[in-house]
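Protocol step 4 of 6: record predicted structures for both targets in the notebook before any analysis. Target 1:
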Amino acid sequence: MSSNSTTSNSSNDSSASHPQQNNSLKRKRTLEMDMEQTNLEMKSVQDKVDLANLEMKLSKAKSDLANLEMKSIQDKVDLQNLLKEEINKNEKLAVEKEEYKKRSELNSEELTQLKKDYVKVVNEFNKLKGDYQNSSKTMLNEKNELAKKLEKINKENTKLKEEKNLNLKELQKYRNACQLPTDEKTALLRQNNQLSIELQRANSELTKCRNELALNLKLVVSFIFFYVEEINQPWYYR
């Protein structure tokens, strides 16, 4: 009679420990899904940063083009004033006209190059805008898929909680009926300790992943600043 009671106790204890292990695994899966969603959000932020940088670059190109056009107009005004002031100085006028001609040619070349650079920036902006739209669609699909997986996990967790509550009720009934032997209590404590160790290990892995994520984000931001400084160098468009 005592042997049958011990076997029944072990069976009930085992069935009570399975939901706890499943809950630990489900929590770990939920953490992994949260990390994937965080990576997608980082990617979206990175795309927005790149788009903002190109918009700044486009605005600077427009400003430079306007300044150069104003400079060309001012040069023409200066030439008219020079012709009025130096109309009786033919020799000097010829030299100054030649110098102005060279300067105008140089300004014309710079203006042509700046227009080419402006077209290049516009093309890059349009390309990045298209890539961002495609990336947004892909990210939205991935986010929807991730939401479905999370919903499935939540349903499974709810089911496990219901099973856990039922098992706890059965265990409470059993405890009310009889006291657990000392060796079975020790086994339960050992299982609880093992679950605690696994939970600590999962938390350590999560902390490690978060640290790596922060480091990667720092490297990406550093690369963005480096890229912006590079494209703002004069030699970048030659």
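Target 2:
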Amino acid sequence: MQNQSYDEVKFVEIKNDGLDRAVFDKIVWINNKMNFQNHVGVEVKEVGKGYAILQLKFNEEHANTIGIAHGGVTATLLDAAMGTAAFTTGKDVVTLEMKVNFLAPGKIGSVATAEGRVLHYGNKTIVTEGKIFDENGGLMALATGTYFVMK
């Protein structure tokens, strides 16, 4: 997807929960262009004002040396969820800071669902929270993130 124009990017099935169409289209386009996120297998499922829901199926490529999902993969999913939530404000953002608490292991072969939410929307920064749940609804990880608003 690297050298594709806006019109050439394949739009994926993402539920739009009331976002302005221009903001929604931009989020879809941005997420299609996130090469690392796409390489890992992160999928955006739903976006609405101030929130985003994403999923990732943990596979063998995501495993660490003890056979569970590597913390970097979990952090990537959280950053993607929180960043996508920040994008629902209509602003361009980049990650400034994030803190992750790992609470339970990601099991290889399972699907993790991440929820990102905007907690504070300022002129220069957007503060978010992210949570990852396992297939049974158990909390696997939580994070806070600060995103810099590009001018």
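Step 5 preliminary note on target 2. Helices lie at 21-33, 35-40, 71-87. DSSP finds three helices and seven strands in the chain.
Proceed to step 6 after PI sign-off.
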